[in-house]
Amino acid sequence: MATATLPSLDEVWHWLSQVPDPEIPVLSLVDLGIVREVKWDDDTLVVTVTPTYSGCPATGVINLDIERALNAHGVARVRLERQLSPPWTTDWMSAEGREKLRAYGIAPPVDDTAADGRSLALARRLASGSNLTVACPRCGSAQTQKVSQFGSTACKASYRCLSCLEPFDYFKCI
Amino acid sequence: MASAEIAVDRAALFEFLTRMGDNTLILGHRVSEWCGHGPVLEEDIALANTALDLIGQTQLWLGLAGEVEGKGRNADALAFLRDAAAFRNCLLVERPNGDFGQTLMRQFLFDAWHHVVLTALTKSADPRVAEIAAKAVKEAAYHLERSSDLVIRLGDGTDESHARMQRALDDMWSYVGELFISDDADRAVAAAGIAPDPASLKPEWEAIVSEVLREATLKAPTSAYVHKGGRRGVHTEHLGYILADMQFLQRAYPGATW
């Protein structure tokens, strides 16, 4: 294939921005910030993806979805590469992605609240109640309570709203 | 790959990597045994997610171990086709699940060590080790936060939960010391700047554990006796049962995929 006929990288990014995350289909892989780079290596499109959590079972499906979507757009040769470093962080989630999450009923990450393993700080937080305020994605109330550190996937925690009484998922900061 | 080679005995590096990967593999398997049996739905899910993180980290550690070994074994071959004597996990992680309190105490004692060692490994002279650690430490921080929180709530809970947590601590305590004993392989990777000497991690581990136990109103046993052997392949009988369960399919149907 002659170089001139290859789709532009902007076009490729646009296609990838339409591939939904298999677990949270309201977000695209680009919203999630896990596509780190796309580039042409001769006539092979190299897509570099970083895992969210090292054990995330969606990783295999994500790779397959990327390959399928690009094949469907006429890219015959796709190579997926895994990049561990720098490790994925919710800071890379787009503003648009955060809004989509909220509209979908999942509270988006509250920046700078990732667990840091400092248990003294933890003990103090426990004594005075959590210092993390997660607003209810349904009614907007700040009166919410953590039910469990892990929700339906490792990237989420379970919360409940004390105002509207609805349970909801919170996408944890990492 | 060649540029990342560090001047260290390949066997010592392989030993270090299998110790890391076998700890997360065996604990991940143990914790996954709770799936569908948790005391409440939220804890069932939290246990399964913790197990998934650990299994994911195992793929990274054992994948690198296979690469370093250079004999064509990948993470699956190392996980499913080695016998007990080749496993390098500490004895703590193969302890039976017991009740929820036992599982939680084992997790907390491990998480505290895990977070400390991974933090140190983010500065490893081997960039492949450093990047796995940088990924894993973020997950381990959530594990430690959850297990500390629950140890405090159950330790400082009802008479029943307090008694069970104290019993769990008494039962698990003598299996932790092994994590802080250095041998030749540890000294070789430490000298190359790849990993910290295990003994050097103890003060920080003790600081975390004593603080949480104090909040939890639990008392650490005073006995200094340490069960050891797992890190050099001498295991309790429990590991054999885990492997029989975990490896059955690949042993019975070699190469099976689905």
Characterization of this structure:
The complex is a heterodimer of chains A (174) and B (258). Chain A is of the alpha/beta class and 174 residues long. In chain A, strand 5 (144-148) and strand 6 (156-161) form a beta hairpin. A 4-stranded mixed sheet of chain A has the order 4-7-6-5. Chain A has 2 domains: 3-88, GMP Synthetase, Chain A, domain 3; 93-171, no CATH class. Helices cover 26% and strands 21% of the residues of chain A. In chain A, 34% of the residues are buried. Chain A contains 5 helices and 7 strands. The radius of gyration of chain A is 19 Å and the shape is elongated. Chain B is globular, with a radius of gyration of 18 Å. Chain B has helices at 10-32, 41-69, 75-80, 100-121, 127-155, 159-172, 184-191, 202-215, 237-252. In chain B, 49% of the residues are buried. Chain B has a single domain (8-252), classed as Ferritin, core subunit, four-helix bundle (Ferritin), CATH 1.20.1260.10.
List keywords for this structure.
heterodimer; A: 174 residues; alpha/beta; GMP Synthetase, Chain A, domain 3; 2 domains; 4-stranded mixed beta sheet; 3-stranded mixed beta sheet; 5 helices; 7 strands; 26% helix; elongated; B: 258 residues; mainly alpha; Ferritin; globular
Alpha-carbon distance between the two ends of chain A = 42 Å
| Sheet with most strands of chain A | 4 strands, mixed
> Given the structure, what is the number of helices of chain A?
5
Residues in helices of chain B, as a percent range:
55-70%
CATH domain topology of the largest domain in chain A: GMP Synthetase, Chain A, domain 3
- Helical stretch count of chain B? 9
**Looking at this structure, what is the CATH superfamily of chain B?**
Ferritin, core subunit, four-helix bundle
Supply Rg of chain A: 19 Å
Give the CA-based shape of chain A. elongated
Taken in chain order, the helices and strands of chain B follow as: HHHHHHHHH
Task: Give the ordered list of helices and strands of chain A.
Answer: HHEEHEHEHEEE
What portion of residues of chain A is helical?
25-40%
Number of strands of chain A: 7
* Average pLDDT metric of chain B: 95
Number of domains of chain B: 1
Distance between the termini of chain B: 31 Å
CATH class category label of the largest domain in chain A? Alpha Beta
Q: Structural class of the helix and strand makeup of chain B?
A: mainly alpha
Q: How would you name the oligomeric state of the polypeptide chains in this document?
A: heterodimer
